């Protein structure tokens, strides 16, 4: 038995991401992943080991995709003149909302963890989440001095965006609308801009 080639490994990761995002780690088995990928269980196990190791690979890839976009956006804040830094902060909010809208499986993976999914896998938050939140918080210090606790502001954006990406909101008729609806996405984006701008007491008006 030989391990999967690059194409099959990518297929396994894509399928595992979709199933972990939809069913959670605890609700997904290696056999389900193999069946959905059209491969046998031995091939999946040969390529990634057990379910825990495959889950770690999925979460690492999700983190790398998320952090790559945030690093670019945060770098813009640091490079911006003081008078342009608030606008760069708003672009960071936009970029995060757009990332979650384009990659709904990423917030889904983390929402499952908030609900105690994969509770025996404890290293992900210290390894991925805490450093990324601190990275953003440190970049915002020059433009948010004296503002409320930055970690709570950052987490409010994360909580709200993840929940919106997963569950959307109910419109006036009781219909659920999410990021796939352009007008609902526009209104959510405007709301998050106003929340961040006002909470941090930034100068001027929110975009």
UniProtKB/TrEMBL annotation:
Question: DNA-binding region spans which residues?
Answer: 29-48
Highest taxon, organism lineage:
Bacteria
Please give the InterPro entries that the UniProt record associates with this protein. Answer: Homeodomain-like_sf, HTH-type_TetR-like_transc_reg, HTH_TetR, Tet_transcr_reg_TetR-rel_C_sf
Q: Which Pfam families match?
A: TetR_N
What's a Gene Ontology MF term here? transcription cis-regulatory region binding
Q: Which Gene3D superfamilies match?
A: Tetracycline Repressor, domain 2
Q: Which PROSITE patterns match?
A: HTH_TETR_2
List UniProt keywords, sorted A-Z. DNA-binding
Name the record gives this protein: HTH tetR-type domain-containing protein
């Amino acid at each position: 038995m030989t391990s999967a080639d690059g194409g099959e490994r990518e297929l396994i990761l894509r399928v595992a991401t979709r199933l972990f995002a939809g069913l959670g780690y605890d609700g997904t088995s290696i056999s389900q992943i193999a069946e959905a990928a059209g491969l046998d269980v031995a091939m999946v196990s040969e390529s990634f080991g057990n379910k825990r190791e495959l889950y770690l690979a999925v979460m690492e890839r999700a983190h790398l995709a998320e952090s790559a976009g945030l690093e670019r956006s945060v770098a813009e804040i640091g490079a911006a003149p003081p008078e342009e830094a608030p606008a760069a902060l708003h672009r960071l909010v936009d970029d995060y909302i757009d990332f979650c809208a384009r990659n709904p499986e990423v917030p889904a993976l983390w929402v499952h963890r908030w609900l105690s999914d994969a509770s025996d896998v404890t290293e992900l938050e210290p390894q991925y989440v805490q450093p990324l939140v601190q990275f953003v918080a440190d970049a915002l210090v020059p433009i948010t001095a004296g503002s409320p606790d930055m970690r709570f502001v950052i987490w409010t954006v994360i909580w709200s965006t993840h929940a919106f990406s997963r569950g959307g909101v109910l419109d006036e008729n009781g219909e659920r609308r999410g990021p796939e609806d352009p007008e609902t996405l526009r209104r959510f984006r405007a709301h998050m801009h106003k929340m961040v701008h006002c909470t941090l007491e930034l100068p001027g008006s929110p975009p």
